[in-house]
């Protein structure tokens, strides 16, 4: 799976420029006690936003900064709300924020709600061969995708004895089942994780214990018989007389396609026994004049009626005036902004869709500029994290907080540190860095992926102004097109400017300023639409 990042279809520069930010896994305390009072006749506008937390110093969601006051109610997993309880939230948690937009353009949060999407034991891990921190695993029959933007809790530790943590450490073969709590964006077969947390327990779903149920949010694929069970992807949940069915749901064939949340116990035969079934998300009805924003997978668009259309985003259904422009983007991650009217119908103001994250670098730091908040790698690539970048220090001690504000992250760096950074090129060809991390689990050499610039056929090509020299590569295995070995002649015959190419050097000597001189153990690959994943 390729990582994708949103790119604005309607410029949001003015709005985004006003947002402060940073990425910190350790939320700061609120800076004020009470909401701002407005002067004059400009009443605050109600705003509701849903999406993953990308930073703290207040809360950052969807490129906006929301001030958290002592009066802000923070509700976690359906428990009673806590005033000013920002410390209960973590980087990557997908939240719903009810707030007010003040006349000066700032946002104050009235309520922040977080509820995990999946909870249970990890099975069937499929780690990426080149980067086992990426990949997927199953939890209660749901496929959980871990990509470059997923935040993995620092509570996870090495269990297989290789001195680093990656997805292979989640295998039950290494000391028993690992129980996790996952937050993210719901897909047809599971979830794209924005955060994965470790649950300190050895088992779950004990019928004799309250509060330890496994949990799943997803679309009902099948109702068995007359309501004896429901199926969500690979999980079957038995419905009994003791099952509490909420939100006026009826366990019948009409439930197929409905987005639900199921809490269940596990019986002695390993069957899932539904304890509670309810709607998986609030359905979209806002107040007159309320601004709304949501980031998630666009599941469905129904334009069959003339006046009012319907869309489903991450399990939530909204009535929309004219959703025809969204039809081409069904199945993609999208960010939608709009305004509700008095009928609870949403008028689309603007939307953003995803483009591929087409830049990735793994290298050693050559120099650091704290004045500009940037560093330069040995290859000469300048990396400047922004306030919306997720920055992580993988060298931090457990519990020290591996996610930081960019300025604090830059202050920790040292020359010769190993770093990994990902991003995408904007409309001006500049790289927007989305995630940057300092790491110890990187071997010798360096790698770079980017759109191709100038080409010297049979000899070299450019990536981000770095000349990649290929004459030293082995034939044919040093040259690939979509994971297929081709040799130099076919590789260069297919290569064109703008193609995404990944170059890997296996020795430190190959990584120099402005040049990657590849030896026999190096490789270059033209990425294709059929590639299954990112390895950088």
TrEMBL record:
<feature type="domain" description="DUF5666">
    <location>
        <begin position="50"/>
        <end position="113"/>
    </location>
</feature>
<dbReference type="Pfam" id="PF18914">
    <property type="entry name" value="DUF5666"/>
</dbReference>
<feature type="domain" description="DUF5666">
    <location>
        <begin position="217"/>
        <end position="278"/>
    </location>
</feature>
<dbReference type="InterPro" id="IPR043724">
    <property type="entry name" value="DUF5666"/>
</dbReference>
<keyword id="KW-0732">Signal</keyword>
<feature type="domain" description="DUF5666">
    <location>
        <begin position="120"/>
        <end position="196"/>
    </location>
</feature>
<feature type="compositionally biased region" description="Polar residues">
    <location>
        <begin position="33"/>
        <end position="42"/>
    </location>
</feature>
<protein>
    <submittedName>
        <fullName>DUF5666 domain-containing protein</fullName>
    </submittedName>
</protein>
<feature type="signal peptide">
    <location>
        <begin position="1"/>
        <end position="17"/>
    </location>
</feature>
<feature type="region of interest" description="Disordered">
    <location>
        <begin position="21"/>
        <end position="48"/>
    </location>
</feature>
């Amino acid at each position: 799976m390729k990582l994708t990042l949103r790119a604005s279809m309607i410029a949001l520069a003015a709005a985004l420029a006003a947002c402060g930010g940073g990425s910190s896994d350790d939320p700061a305390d609120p800076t004020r006690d009470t909401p701002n009072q407005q002067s004059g006749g400009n009443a605050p506008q109600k705003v509701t936003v849903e999406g993953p937390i990308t930073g703290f110093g207040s809360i950052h969601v969807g490129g906006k900064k929301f001030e958290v006051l002592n009066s802000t109610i923070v509700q976690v997993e359906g428990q009673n709300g806590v005033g000013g309880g920002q410390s209960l939230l973590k980087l990557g948690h997908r939240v719903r924020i009810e707030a007010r937009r003040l006349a000066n353009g700032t946002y104050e949060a009235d309520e922040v709600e977080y509820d995990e999407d999946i909870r249970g034991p990890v099975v069937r891990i499929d780690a990426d061969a080149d980067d086992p921190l990426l990949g997927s695993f199953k939890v209660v029959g749901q496929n959980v995708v871990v990509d470059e933007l997923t935040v993995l809790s620092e509570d996870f530790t090495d269990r297989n004895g290789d001195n680093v943590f990656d997805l292979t450490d989640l295998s039950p073969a290494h000391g028993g089942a690992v129980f996790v709590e996952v937050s993210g964006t719901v897909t047809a077969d599971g979830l794209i994780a924005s955060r994965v947390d470790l649950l300190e327990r050895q088992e779950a779903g004990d019928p004799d214990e309250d509060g330890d149920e496994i949990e799943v949010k997803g679309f009902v694929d099948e109702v068995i018989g007359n309501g004896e069970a429901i199926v969500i992807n690979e999980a079957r949940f038995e419905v009994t007389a003791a099952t509490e069915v909420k939100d006026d749901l009826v366990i019948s064939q009409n439930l197929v396609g409905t987005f639900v949340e199921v809490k269940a116990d596990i019986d002695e035969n390993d069957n899932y026994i539904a304890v509670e079934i309810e709607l998986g998300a609030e359905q979209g009805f806002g107040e007159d004049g309320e601004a709304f924003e949501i980031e998630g997978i666009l599941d469905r668009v129904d334009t069959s009626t003339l006046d009012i259309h319907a869309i489903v985003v991450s399990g939530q259904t909204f009535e929309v005036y004219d959703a025809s422009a969204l039809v081409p983007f069904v199945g993609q991650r999208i960010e939608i902004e709009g305004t509700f009217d008095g009928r609870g119908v949403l008028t689309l103001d603007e939307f953003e869709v995803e483009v591929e994250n087409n830049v990735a670098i793994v290298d050693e730091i050559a120099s650091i500029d704290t004045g500009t908040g940037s560093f330069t790698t040995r290859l000469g690539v300048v990396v400047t994290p922004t306030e919306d970048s997720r920055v992580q220090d993988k060298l931090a001690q457990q519990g020290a907080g591996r996610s930081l504000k960019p300025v604090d992250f830059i202050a920790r760096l040292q020359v010769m540190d190993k770093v990994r950074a990902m991003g995408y090129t904007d409309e001006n060809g500049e790289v927007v860095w989305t995630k940057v991390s300092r790491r110890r689990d990187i071997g010798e050499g360096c790698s770079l992926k980017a759109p191709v610039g100038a080409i010297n056929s049979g000899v070299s090509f450019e990536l981000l102004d770095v000349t990649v020299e290929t004459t030293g590569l082995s034939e044919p295995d040093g040259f690939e097109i979509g994971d297929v070995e081709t040799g130099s002649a076919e590789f260069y015959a297919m290569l064109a400017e703008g193609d995404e190419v990944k170059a890997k050097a296996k020795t430190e000597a190959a990584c120099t300023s402005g040049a990657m001189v590849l030896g026999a153990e190096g490789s270059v690959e033209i990425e294709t639409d059929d590639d299954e994943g990112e390895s950088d």
